[in-house]
Write a structure and sequence with these properties.
By secondary structure, the chain is α/β, with parallel strands linked by helices. Helix content is 44%, strand content 15%. Strands 2-1-5-4-3 form a five-stranded antiparallel β-sheet. Strand 1 and strand 2 (44-47) form a beta hairpin.
Length: 474
């Protein structure tokens, strides 16, 4: 045991001997922040490159300063924190501004000798710009983590384990595409899972450890689109953030940028997007520096891009640049064998979320499978959530009370998943309009009853004005 302890001490001493001043300088220069050390007379003993750069000087020039004269010499806007630390022998934290206008938060701590006297002061600081950049990076990572958790929470392998042959073939092709950096364009109706497919390509590809950055092109105002995608330098235009802004392309460097509803992108931005795709180069607004980015583009649209090209609303060269690997999602009406597995998945998700134990009645199952689902998977998910919340019974059936607005109804030759009170489908006993009116009245009465006769609360839950309740109950 003694030999082991002695060997450990020798190893520790050997490691300490390897810490040369040169190595310590390298370590200090790679720390995020400014470091400086002053002796008891206020002379600078050490600083890293970041500290010197904050004062727009070299390390050698900075070490000529004395902390007691930095304020009077115009180097700082107030008495140096290190000087106060030497005078008070206490830790000092303060906000200061340098002669070149850089603001920073600095912390100084005293180091005592064997007799309890202050021997030196160690200072650590971060400029406001550095601090905000660090916070921005933390927020980005936090958002990426939240997106990942949300994706894991809301998505499951049932998308790739579809019972439908066309969906299976789609994901097989997507898996092959994931192994490359080729641009992918995903076509499909709204609600068919285009973003889910894009996320699948990202998380099974070589960039899976990097964030997946989605952007809805239709939701970005045209006047802000260039600054959102390319960012800008500080002071680039009136109203610009004083710190500048990192654009989506820089954020997605070495990762994946998902352009949803790319068909809504204005022509002026299409040309700029094409240049980045072809050269991998971009510039911030107001910047003269060319920035190289390595971004994989996945795009999606529910519009026919070829038709937009013919109409002059979409660049033909960009169309071909995006269409390296085209994929098309399958609408829910063409994959009926997946309706109940999807519905069950969503139901279990909401059961966990709301701590419930709901289940589908046989009639509801038949109705769900017969319905046309024009809103596809998104409509199904919203319908299941609505039924889970509004149903007064654990058994989800016609009496569960889905809102008539946006709830499944007859579409073409398909049937509604909301049967009559008897549990049987209406067989021509009344017209469709009469049946809808009767369902409205019944559902409103049930809602008013659940609210204890409070018409205002019932109107709030129904999303209509209280006068509408009286009118619809006539």
């Amino acid at each position: 045991m003694e030999r082991k302890e002695e060997g450990a001490r020798e190893e520790t001493q050997g490691s300490a001997e390897k810490m040369t001043p040169e190595l310590f300088q390298v370590i200090a220069d790679h720390i995020l922040g400014n470091i400086s050390v002053a002796d008891r007379e206020g002379n600078i003993l050490f600083c890293n490159k970041a500290m010197a750069e904050t004062f727009d000087c070299s390390v050698e020039e900075y070490m000529k300063y004395n902390v007691f004269t930095m304020h009077s010499g115009g180097i700082l806007n107030r008495f140096a924190a290190a000087a106060e630390c030497l005078n008070t022998a206490r830790e000092v934290v303060r906000y200061i501004t340098t002669k070149n206008g850089k603001m920073m938060m600095i912390q100084c701590r005293p180091v005592f000798d064997g007799e309890g006297r202050v021997e030196m002061v160690v200072g650590y600081s971060q400029t406001e710009e550095m601090y905000h950049a660090f916070l921005e990076r933390i927020n980005e990572e936090k958002a990426n983590l939240q997106n990942a958790l949300q994706y894991l929470e809301n998505s499951s392998e049932f998308f790739t384990e579809s019972r439908n042959g066309a969906v299976q073939a789609l994901y097989e092709t997507a898996g092959k595409a994931a192994g490359s950096d080729s641009t992918v364009i995903i076509y499909g109706e709204s609600g068919t899972g285009k973003e889910v497919l894009a996320r699948y390509i990202h998380r099974t590809g070589g960039r899976a450890r990097r964030p997946f950055i989605p952007v809805n092109c239709a939701a970005v105002p045209r006047e802000l689109m260039e600054s959102e995608f390319f960012g800008y330098e500080k002071g680039a235009f009136t109203g610009a953030d004083a710190r500048g802004k990192t654009g989506l392309f820089e954020m997605a460097d070495n990762s994946t940028l998902f352009l949803d509803e790319v068909g809504e992108m204005p022509l002026s931005m299409q040309s700029k997007l094409l240049r980045v795709l072809e050269t991998g180069e971009m510039r911030r607004i107001g910047g003269g520096k060319t920035i190289h980015v390595d971004v994989r583009i996945l795009a999606a649209t529910n519009r026919d891009l070829r038709e937009l090209v013919r109409e002059g609303l979409f660049r033909e060269d960009l169309y071909y640049r995006l269409s390296v690997i085209p994929l098309t999602t399958v609408p829910l009406r063409e994959r009926k064998e997946d309706i109940m597995p999807l519905a069950e998945h969503f139901l279990q998700e909401y059961n966990r979320k709301y701590k419930m134990n709901k289940y589908f009645s046989p009639d509801m199952r038949r109705g769900l499978e017969r319905y046309f689902w024009p809103g596809n998977i998104r409509e199904l998910k919203n319908f299941v959530e609505r039924m889970t919340i509004l149903s007064s019974s654990d058994c989800l059936d016609a009496g569960g009370g889905p809102d008539q607005q946006g709830s499944p109804g007859n579409h073409g030759e398909t049937e509604t998943p909301t049967p009559s009170d008897s549990g049987e489908q209406t067989q021509g006993a009344m017209t469709l309009k009469e049946a809808q009116q009767e369902f409205q009245r019944r559902y409103i009465r049930e809602t008013v009853g659940r609210c204890g006769g409070n018409i205002s609360e019932a109107a709030r839950q129904l999303g209509i004005h209280r006068s509408g309740i009286y009118r619809l109950l006539k």
